[in-house]
Amino acid sequence: MLKIENVTAGYGADAVLQGVTLDVASGQTVALIGPNGAGKTTTMRTISGMIHPRTGTIRLDGKNISGIPANRLARMGVAHVPEGRRVFAPLSVEDNLLLGGYGHLPRLFGYNARARADLDHVFTLFPRLRERRRQPAGTLSGGEQQMLAIGRALMSRPRVLLLDEPSMGLAPVMVHEVFATIAHLRTLGTTILLVEQFAESALKLADYAFVMEGGHVAVSGRASDLAADPRVIEVYLGGDRLAKKRTIDARI
Fold first, then answer.
1. Residue 73, SS3?
2. Percentage of residues in the chain having pLDDT higher than 90
3. If you write DSSP's letter for every residue of 23-52 in order, what string do you get?
4. 198: burial class by Cβ within 10 Å (0-12, 13-18, 19+)?
5. C-alpha to C-alpha distance for 215 and 171, rounded to whole angstroms
6. 105 domain-assigned
7. Per the structure, how many domains does the chain have?
8. Which residues pair with 29 in a beta bridge?
9. Residue of 126, 136, 142, 133 lying closest to 182 (CA atoms)
10. Which domain holds residue 171?
11. Is residue 143 part of a domain?
12. Which of 95, 149, 97, 148 is nearest to 118 (CA)?
């Protein structure tokens, strides 16, 4: 479904990604974990067209999408839920959702029926959003805004869903709810690439995982295998702060 090969990318003169290679099979949930500054968010932005790769290729269903602008990629089925949610605060919950489906909904005939069906799907996943459908998005709690950001992405009927730090800044009860939603989307066969600060939880949700360090993929494998690997546990899932700062290259 999604394949990234030897991609370098960055900001200005700085190359954050150093030959990143990873792939996400159709219907899989794939976790991308690693320390802060490893390049996880930059990888997501490069896939979704917010940053253009300097070298390497990004393919969606075999088609080279490297360098295609973000708006076109969204129409092609790449839905990015960015770190920090970034909802349109003055607009209502429903209008935020409809904007998410803008590139997918018919312009004339059939708009109302298709929009209603897609809204019902999102409201079934997130009943709280149905209750607040007329409420300005900026007045929602952080957890509700995260639900809205995910729902807005789902309105486009994505072929691949990119989730960047969905638990960031949320209360524990809302973190649990967001993870439960991701688990449910997985059962529905949604293709997901997940960046998550809680590595252990991400590995429990995922089928496969990639560990990034210093702008490249240091190790990859089945999520269950990585979750049981003593070296990965020491660096990312346990141990003290100093242990987590060691480079994974020295241990794997």
1. helix
2. 70
3. EE-TT-EEEEE-STTSSHHHHHHHHTTSS-
4. middle
5. 30
6. no
7. 1
8. 192
9. 126
10. 2-85+158-250
11. no
12. 97
Contact 185, 161 (CB under 8 A): yes
Residue 181's Cβ-count burial label (10 Å; 0-12, 13-18, 19+) is middle
What is the C-alpha R_g of the chain? 18
Name the phi and psi angles at 62, rounded to 5: 85, -10
Give Cβ neighbours of residue 61 (< 8 Å, ≥ 6 apart).
1, 159
- Residue 232 near residue 211, CB atoms below 8 Å: yes
The pair of structure tokens assigned to 96 is 């935020």
Q: Which residues contact 37 (CB under 8 A, 6 or more apart)?
A: none
Residue 209 has pLDDT above 50, yes or no: yes
* CATH classification of the domain holding 238: 3.40.50.300
Query: What is the value of pTM for the model shown?
Result: 0.88
Angle between helices 142-154 and 111-125 (to 10 degrees): 140
155-175: pLDDT as tens digits? 999 999 999 999 998 888 889
Please report whether residue 145 resides in a domain: no
Asked if residue 25 belongs to a domain, the reply is yes
How much is the pLDDT for 108? 66
Q: How far apart are CA 2 and CA 23, in angstroms?
A: 6
